[in-house]
Amino acid sequence: MATLKEIAAESGFSIATVSRVLNEDDTLNVPESTRELIIETAGRLNYKTKTERKRDEAAKKRGLHKLSSVGIVEMLSVGEQIEDAYYMYLKNNVEKVCMEEEIEAVPMQYDEGLSEYRNMGRPVDGIIAIGQFSEDRISAMRKRTEKIVFVDSSPDEQKYCSIKTNYETGVRQGVDYLVRQGHVNIAFVGPENSRDSKAVTAPEDRRRIFKAITREYGNKVHPETIDVTGTARNATENITKFIIGDNNLRPDEEKVTALFTYNEATALGAIKAVQNSGLRVPEDISVLGYNDTVLASYMQPPITGIHIYMDEMARAAVEALTKLINGYVNIPFTTLIPTTLKERGSIRKKQ
């Protein structure tokens, strides 16, 4: 296992800075890119914090059976992940935790002809399923093992353990922040419907919650929605039409000044749409993102967004599967991982 000195030498930062970042010191004021580089370096060198080492020791004392291999099942294809990188980063975090714990991560592909998941001939202790899956796909997983933990969905809380992000907390953080910045004409940008935890078409969660929370503000906030499919290209097209069309014809006091986008791809499309319309982000229109992957801090401008702790979701999933296999789970449980808002450069306080 690497030392702080080795991580400092590899990353190019002082031992003190490395230590404070890895111990999540909230008082440390460094760029987000610095934190990400240090954390990435620590992970690559297999560093473990004191908390992680204590957790490992506690597990040994409890006599937990260590997982040897975990099947990874993904909802999206590689091509679909290019459009929305969130699930790719979520999978990468699960694989990273498995690597840290010396667990083999086995990718499992669905065979349409046989209606089953193939695991390359390698046995798996259990499955971590990332995304939303139909009942047929879930049945196919159960043919391999009953030990399944779902990440980012909860198809049946009475049957399966699941790890989810708390959308209600995240959307509320975003709306409240925009209102504090003086924005009252806010448009939510996202699809009307999406797949629910059973891969069935249903109202999109973030959009539904956005409407409910903005209603709580009464006449103080004037919300609306812009329909997009969730890809950057479609977002650019539809938002551009809105800005140069309907929004351009309104009096200044009624114009939308902030876009609450439902994922990072949509945020990128929104920024391009504003720029294509001859306007600027954030001077003319502010853009709030959601998911907040590593890409957000490298955009121009860097995207302020709701940060999902994908690393904690991944760690919670592996821990849940370990408990499940060791018989520590009497009833299935759902873990909600909180979110936080990361301030960068895509939102401006309205004068």
Structure description:
With 351 residues, this protein is of the alpha/beta class. It has three domains: 4-47; 66-165 and 310-338, Rossmann fold; 167-309, Rossmann fold. It has helices spanning 4-11, 15-22, 32-44, 50-62, 78-83, 86-100, 135-144, 167-180, 205-216, 232-249, 264-276, 310-325; strands at residues 69-74, 104-107, 109-111, 116-118, 126-130, 148-151, 161-165, 185-190, 193-195, 201-203, 222-227, 258-261, 286-291, 304-308, 334-337, 339-342. A six-stranded parallel β-sheet has the order 2-1-5-6-7-15. α1 crosses α2 and α6 crosses α12. The longest helix has 18 residues, at 232-249. 38% of the residues are buried. This is Transcriptional regulator LacI family.
List the helices and strands and how they pair.
Layout: H1 4-11, H2 15-22, H3 32-44, H4 50-62, E1 69-74, H5 78-83, H6 86-100, E2 104-107, E3 109-111, E4 116-118, E5 126-130, H7 135-144, E6 148-151, E7 161-165, H8 167-180, E8 185-190, E9 193-195, E10 201-203, H9 205-216, E11 222-227, H10 232-249, E12 258-261, H11 264-276, E13 286-291, E14 304-308, H12 310-325, E15 334-337, E16 339-342
Helix pairs in contact: 1-2, 1-3, 6-12, 8-9, 10-11
What's this, in brief?
It is built from 12 helices and 16 strands. It has 351 residues and is an alpha/beta fold. Strand 5, helix 7 and strand 6 form a beta-alpha-beta unit.
